[in-house]
Amino acid sequence: MPLKLIKTDTPPATHPGAGMTRQVLAYSDQLMLVRHRFEKGWIGTPHSHPHHQLVYVLSGSIRIIADGEEAIAQAGDSFVVDGNVEHQAFALEDAEVLDVFTPHREDYAL
């Protein structure tokens, strides 16, 4: 199928942890688009994965630490985390982000 349209309300949302909602919007073998919503005060677990990750902040602000570097990303900002780099995020306020992973994350796939 050369084109696959996915309506916003179609993919189910999951709650992998307190204060976070995940919605896989679309994916192929090479790419995955995911919406994450974080409640103010949410603290992510430090982790790494082999996937390259591009993050676009839709609303709110988050603090990100990646390989010892720290930054604040606000609505309209974006950043990249290379594969196998340990990183962690903190929600400074209610926030929503779009994540793009390559290749797609099999652990997130529907």
Automatic annotation (TrEMBL):
One GO MF term attached to the UniProt entry: dioxygenase activity
InterPro entries the UniProt entry points to: Bacilysin_H2HPP_isomerase, Cupin_2, KdgF, RmlC-like_jellyroll, RmlC_Cupin_sf
Assigned keywords, A-Z: Dioxygenase, Oxidoreductase
Family annotation (Pfam families): Cupin_2
Superkingdom per UniProt: Bacteria
Segments forming domain Cupin type-2: 36-101
Keyword Cell membrane (UniProt): no
PANTHER family: H2HPP ISOMERASE
Protein name in the entry: Quercetin dioxygenase-like cupin family protein
